[in-house]
Design a protein that fits this description.
Layout (H helix, E strand, L loop, with lengths): L1 H11 L6 E5 L8 E4 L2 E11 L4 H5 L7 E8 L1 H9 L3 E4 L4 E5 L2 E5 L17 H12 L8 H8 L3 H13 L3 E4 L4 E4 L2 H19 L1 E7 L7 H4 L5 E4 H9 L7 E5 L4 H6 L3 E3 L5 E4 L10 H7 L7 H11 L2 H15 L4
Parallel strand pairs: 3-4, 4-5, 12-14
Antiparallel strand pairs: 1-2, 2-3, 5-6, 6-7, 8-9, 10-13, 10-14, 11-12
């Protein structure tokens, strides 16, 4: 199937380029193809966004990497060209920087492969997927329970579950009618922009600054059940060797009076503390994970990872990779 995609992408360039498949090494090796005699290691994806690029740069392959995706965002294409990483998409856009093949085509007509109207990758879908990324076994829970913990309607759960099945992320397993979540890493990759672009803005409470010298002692001053750190401060709490510059906090306090008096934060449109309301209900399956992390004052690692990697900042990306390896990779 990948070879068919590859051939179609090449044919879409409408150029005299001969494409051949050569070999498929064992992971983490990438399949090797040939373009007019130039060997490339091909990195297949449905979509490539800016937060994917740093991970592509870390690919260590025998031959130059060629990204082949149905859709690549304009920013991601700029970043790939800046690093001289080859790419092509399903819209006839391409950049080849190979010794015997140099091509740059930009037709400005690309749109995301998954449309915004998809019943899966919506705000409601993202709130439900968040729980599946925490615990894949939840795909077998009742839809009423899923609606409760995701804070979405029962009808939305039904549509999202159907969509996940149609996209191949949920598979019916055996006569016992158990379901299995498939493609965890790809689903996580699609969820990262979804949570940052659709969910977090909808649950934003405001931007603040620390009052007085609270920032110097934030770990202790905000150790309370109404506060859950995410992003950079959560990474600092989990690793003990990371110093946050931007603070992302989820709090059950909804009234500005409570935020000002109890948390002692000051409204500031340019502040480095961003407050959100939780987009989930408490679940019992978090206790074991919190014990493993030795800290209860943080959100689930999947959300920490999503905020860090979406920032695009090199130091955050390195920390995101560590969290991915330690807490999320067992789900792959």
């Amino acid at each position: 199937m990948d070879f068919l995609y590859f051939k179609n992408f090449v044919e879409g360039l409408d150029m005299d380029i001969e494409a051949n498949f050569l070999s498929a090494p064992e992971p983490p090796g990438l399949p090797v193809y040939e373009l007019n005699g130039e060997k490339v290691s091909v990195y297949f994806r449905n979509e490539i966004r800016q937060h994917n690029v740093p991970f592509i740069l870390n690919e260590k392959q025998e031959f130059p990497v060629l990204v082949a995706a149905r859709y690549i965002t304009p920013t991601a294409k700029d970043m790939l060209r800046a690093e001289r990483i080859n790419y092509m998409d399903s819209f006839g856009n391409a950049y080849f920087n190979l010794p015997g093949l140099r091509v740059y085509l930009e037709r400005h007509n690309a749109t995301p492969y998954v449309k915004p109207s998809s019943k899966v990758f919506t705000q409601a879908g993202g709130q439900l997927i968040y729980h599946f990324l925490q615990n894949p076994d939840l795909v077998n829970e009742t839809q009423r329970y899923l609606a409760h913990i995701s804070m979405i309607s029962l009808g939305s759960v039904s549509k999202v579950m159907q969509g996940l099945s149609e996209h191949g992320y949920i598979f019916h397993e055996g006569e016992n009618k158990r379901y299995q979540l498939l493609g965890y890493k790809e689903l996580l990759d699609r969820w990262v922009p979804l949570v940052n672009e659709k969910i977090l803005p909808s649950f934003l409470l405001g931007t603040y600054s620390f009052s007085g010298d609270l920032q110097s002692d934030w770990k202790n001053q905000f150790l309370r059940p109404q506060v859950f750190w995410s992003g950079e401060p959560a990474a600092a709490l989990l690793t003990h060797d990371f110093f946050p510059q931007k603070f992302s906090m989820f709090t059950t306090f909804r009234e500005k009076r409570d935020i000002l008096q109890t948390l002692k934060l000051v409204p500031d449109p340019n502040g480095n503390v961003t407050l959100y309301a939780p987009f989930w209900m408490d679940t019992n399956n978090m206790e074991a994970l919190f014990n493993r992390m030795n800290y209860k004052n943080v959100v689930h690692p999947v959300l920490i990872y999503a905020e860090l990697v979406y920032s695009g900042e090199p130091r955050n990306l390195e920390m995101a990779q560590n969290i991915l390896n330690e807490y999320l990779e067992p789900q792959f």
